[in-house]
Amino acid sequence: RNAQNFPLDLAAVEAPSING
């Protein structure tokens, strides 16, 4: 993954993970 996309990509993956 690109450094620029990392924070956005990470948030997109963690959001549904935390919400279930």
Q: How would you describe this protein?
A:
It is a single chain. The chain has 20 residues and is mainly α. It contains one helix and no strands.
Main attributes?
single chain; 20 residues; mainly alpha; 1 helix; elongated; PsbA; chloroplast; plastid
Q: Unreliable runs, pLDDT <50, ≥5 residues?
A: none
How many strands, which pairing sense, and closed or not: the largest β-sheet? none
Global morphology: elongated
What's the pLDDT, averaged over the residues?
Answer: 61
Radius of gyration: 9 Å
Q: In terms of quaternary structure, what is this?
A: single chain
The helix content is over 70%
Order of helices and strands: H
Derived from helix and strand composition plus strand pairing, the structural class reads mainly alpha
Strand content: under 5%
Layout of secondary structure:
Elements: H1 6-19
Briefly, what is this?
The chain has one helix at 6-19. With 20 residues, the chain is mostly helical.
